Amino acid sequence: MSLSEAQQELRALHEAGTLADSYPELPALLARLDDAGLDYAGRLLVRAGAADVLAAHPGTPVVRIAVSGRSTTAGLVPALTAQLARHGLLLIPYAAGSGGYVQDLADPASDVYAHRPDLTLCVLDPLTVWDRLRAPWQPYDVALEAERQRLLLAELAAVHAAHAPAGATFVLNTVPLLRRFTHQLTGLAQRAELGAVWREFNADLLRMSDPAAGVAVLDLEPLTTAGTRADDPRLGAYAEAHCTAELLAGYAREAAHLARALRGDAKKCLVLDLDGTLWDGILAEDGPERVRAADSLRAGAFASFRRTVEQLASQGVLLAVCSKNDSEPVARALAAHPDWPLGAGDFVSVVADWGSKADGIHKIAADLGIAPDAVVFADDSAFEREVVRAGVPGAAVVPLDAEPARHTEHLLADGWFDVPSVTDEDRGRAARYREREQRERHQARAKDYQTFLRGLGIVVDTGPAGTHETARIAQLSLRTNRFNLTGTRLTGAQIQQLGADPDALVLAVRAADRFGDDGVVGAVFARRDGDRLLIENMVVSCRVLGRGIESAVLAGLLHAACDAGLSAVEALWRPAAANEAQRAFCPAHGFETVSGTRDDGGAIRYRHTLDRLPSVPAHVRLRLRLTDSPAQEVASCTPSSI
């Protein structure tokens, strides 16, 4: 088999012994590989060694994964290695022996738990359930054994929750139903009953999925219905390998998407080309009225793609356009075309000019206040894709082609927008960016910034987080970089554990103003320590920075601590990816550095003795409470009361 150009480059790095040194450049190289190429890459990358990569690049984000299963899953580690490397992540694996997954997962002292995994993969192969049945059997027997297996898996998930590291996720999967079992039943009615039983089994597995509680279930049915064969009887009989390499490769891809989602690495904005991407035709040649959107079979394929885009937008994915066209015809086409399921109002930013698309994406990101690497760019032009790959490092580039019927498949292949759970704040994200535009227009009319702030009518409500807010707070913790005092990332499961700790406080920061309700925009993680309150972390969404909300919350906490008779409030700052500017946040509010407390991670501890309290900014109305009970409310801070 001849190697592709990208495979040859990878082999050259391997032979030169520089794979580890080149690890940050690998995502761009791996993006050029097909499935066979990724299999080749995985086998090479396993040899590079995680220790060597970390020695060369200590800041490489790491994912620790333990793999356990009912049968041989040897091919999974190379596949996981390649898939995670595609996303800039480094796998540190532990692979348990085949067949002993129950013992491995039920024993808190096993090597699975000693590995301290972020993800524990309990791989269920197609013989799950069947190897415990004896002939003759009927659908009723299958239903009983399937339920026994489900209950066993639920017990293993509970053990994992109790003994795995905080925030670790236990990963199961649905189980393909093989024809060689269904067709052992000659009665068509019984065969149909078996199909129903099996689908109920998989449905029960899927209902176990709760990423916030540390359980996720990968659905393998989309892989098998797309043509991936689940098993090879020869490998099963002679090597105890009951999953095909293709199924394991697909599983690894989905597991990598899950790992990225749990880290909070979802992309935020989909930037789309127009000609050949959203419609059939060339706008500059055909004109706004003649580009075709739905009135032919080929144009109907574009319409189907746009419906996919609309579905993504409904869940909080921001839509933008970057097109090499004149702006006026683009505006006319977006606003007036009769066949569009999407209108001009669905796009939060439109760049239509004849400049570089890399520059256009940087402009879109700046307009939206997001990092350029939070963008997914989709274009049918190979040239434009390469321009963006080179000019916007970290952005995801979707390789569309001349066949619009496959646009949706290409766009969804890598789960760029996957999150553990879609929140109300996600669904309202586009509306909030439009509210931001209104604020900016209001600011432009104000004579100065303080006048602008006073005119906003900002109301901030800070209090104990509700269970319905856990997913949003986890999202803020995982994805907020600029205002994240310690850089600490917490999953939904970890936040739930904090909520159960009687000494811990998890406060949600909610904000609204005259232009709309921003929902949960921040969180405070604190702990009562004797007569002190320790602020372990504070995160605030970058979209509300500059409005004084963070200052109002900190001032309110100091007043609440004083009202409660505490002697001091302490806070931590630790250097992280982009939070250097927040080193001065606590000192600016009267905190002093506690000498000799900097730890190995560079954390600085600050203390406020509550003798001189800062005021809540005059333009913010703050309501703050530390407990759910109004009778125990310790602070209600407004500008007039402080």
Give me the Rg, rounded. 27 Å
CATH homolog superfamily of the largest domain = Gcn5-related N-acetyltransferase (GNAT)
Biggest sheet character: 8 strands, mixed
Q: What is the CATH topology classification name of the largest domain?
A: Aminopeptidase
Low-pLDDT runs of 5+ residues are 630-642
CATH hierarchy: architecture of the largest domain: 3-Layer(aba) Sandwich
Structural class: alpha/beta
User: Tell me, what's the shape?
Assistant: globular
Report the strand count.
18
Tally of separate domains? 4
Termini gap = 75 Å
What is the level 1 CATH name of the largest domain?
A: Alpha Beta
Number of helices: 25
Helix content: 40-55%
Q: Give me the side-by-side strand order of the main sheet.
A: 16-17-15-14-13-12-11-18
Approximate strand percentage = 15-25%
Give the integer mean of the pLDDT values.
Answer: 87
Annotation keywords:
alpha/beta; 8-stranded mixed sheet; Rossmann fold; disordered C terminus; globular; 4 domains; 5-stranded parallel sheet; 642 residues
Compact summary:
The protein is α/β, with parallel strands linked by helices and 642 residues long. The protein is 40% helix and 17% strand.
Protein described:
The chain is of the alpha/beta class. It folds into four domains: 1-58; 61-262, 3-Layer(aba) Sandwich (Rossmann fold); 269-412, 3-Layer(aba) Sandwich (Rossmann fold), CATH 3.40.50; 430-632, Gcn5-related N-acetyltransferase (GNAT) (Aminopeptidase, 3-Layer(aba) Sandwich). The protein is built from 25 helices and 18 strands. The strands form three sheets. Strands 16-17-15-14-13-12-11-18 form an eight-stranded mixed beta sheet, with helices on both faces. α3 (35-48) crosses α5, α5 crosses α13 and α17 (357-368) crosses α18 (382-391). The radius of gyration is 27 Å and the shape is globular.
